[in-house]
C-alpha cells in the first residue's frame, strides 16, 4: 500500500462573535491508497470540517495536508481546482444537480473544466457510468423527476466520471432508505475493489460496515480524535 493522503497535526477554528470556536481539534491522519475510511462521531464533532480540509475545499488553521506528497496549502487556487477536478470525486448528503440539465448533461459537468476530452469519449463514459449505476433508462430526464435514491446515484456517476483517485463522501446515504442506501454503499465498495480510495463520513452503522477502517472523532471538549 502507498500513502495517498496525509494530514499532519491539522485543526480548524472559526471566529464566532469575539471568541474562536474550534471546529476540529488537532489530529494527524494517513490514508493509504485503496482504503475505505469511515469517519464517525457525534453531530458537531468536526466530520464535515475534516472532509472539507482533506479535499481542499477549505484550509486548516494549523497543520498541513499532503496529497501524494504535495502540500495542498502550498498550491495556488488554480492548482487546487485542477486537482479537485481531475483526482477527487465528491458526494454530499443532498444531491446538488442542475435542474435545467438532463441527467446525462449533469454527469458530464466535470468535463466542462480542466483538460479537454473528446466529445465522443465524454458521452461514452457518462453513458457507461449511468448504466453501471442502473440509470440507463433515465439519461434524458431532468433531476426534478427523479427519486432521492436515483438522484444520489446520478451524483455517484458524476463523482466517478473523471476516474478520481479518491472519493470524498459526506453522509452519502443520509437522505436514503435502507435499500437505496445499500445500493450506494455497494457501488462505493466496488470502486474500492477496483483500487479507488474512499473517505466517507457516516452516522449509519450499516453504511460504516462497508469500510476497511474507522476514524472516530470526539467533540472538541475532549480534544483528540481517536483511531479504532
Ligand atoms: N463556518 C463555520 N463557522 C463557525 N463555526 C463552524 C463553521 N463550520 C462549522 N462550525 C462549527 O464546527 C463544529 C463542527 O462542525 P461540522 O460541520 O464539521 O460537524 P459534523 O461532525 O459534520 O456534524 P454533523 O454530524 O451534524 O454534520 C460545529 O460546532 C459547527 O458549529
Ligand atoms: Mg456534517
UniProtKB/TrEMBL annotation:
PROSITE patterns: ABC_TRANSPORTER_1 (PS00211), ABC_TRANSPORTER_2 (PS50893). PANTHER family: ABC TRANSPORTER ABCH.1, IMPORT ATP-BINDING PROTEIN. This is ABC transporter ATP-binding protein. Residues 5-228 form the ABC transporter domain. Keywords: ATP-binding, Nucleotide-binding, Transport. It comes from the Bacteria. One of its GO terms (cellular component) is plasma membrane. It holds the Pfam family ABC_tran. One of its GO terms (molecular function) is ATP hydrolysis activity.
Amino acid at each position: 500500500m502507498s500513502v495517498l493522503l496525509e494530514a499532519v497535526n491539522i485543526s480548524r477554528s472559526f471566529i464566532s462573535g469575539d471568541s474562536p470556536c474550534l471546529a476540529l481539534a488537532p489530529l494527524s491522519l494517513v490514508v493509504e491508497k485503496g482504503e475505505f475510511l469511515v469517519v464517525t462521531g457525534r453531530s458537531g464533532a468536526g466530520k464535515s470540517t475534516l472532509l472539507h480540509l482533506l479535499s481542499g475545499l477549505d484550509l486548516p488553521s494549523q497543520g498541513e495536508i499532503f496529497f501524494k506528497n504535495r502540500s495542498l496549502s502550498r498550491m495556488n487556487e488554480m492548482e487546487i481546482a485542477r486537482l479537485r477536478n481531475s483526482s477527487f470525486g465528491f458526494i454530499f448528503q443532498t444531491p446538488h444537480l442542475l435542474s435545467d440539465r438532463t441527467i446525462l448533461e449533469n454527469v458530464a459537468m466535470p468535463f466542462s473544466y480542466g483538460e479537454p476530452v473528446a466529445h465522443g469519449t465524454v458521452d461514452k463514459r457518462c453513458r457507461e457510468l449511468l448504466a453501471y449505476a442502473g440509470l440507463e433508462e433515465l439519461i434524458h430526464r431532468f433531476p426534478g423527476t427523479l427519486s432521492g435514491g436515483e438522484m444520489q446515484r446520478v451524483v455517484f456517476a458524476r463523482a466517478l466520471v473523471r476516474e478520481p483517485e479518491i472519493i470524498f463522501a459526506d453522509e452519502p446515504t443520509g437522505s436514503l432508505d435502507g435499500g437505496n442506501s445499500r445500493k450506494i454503499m455497494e457501488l462505493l465498495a466496488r470502486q474500492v475493489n477496483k483500487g479507488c480510495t474512499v473517505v466517507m463520513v457516516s452516522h449509519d452503522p450499516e453504511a460504516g460496515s462497508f469500510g476497511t477502517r474507522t476514524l472516530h472523532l470526539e467533540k472538541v471538549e475532549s480534544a483528540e480524535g481517536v483511531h479504532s
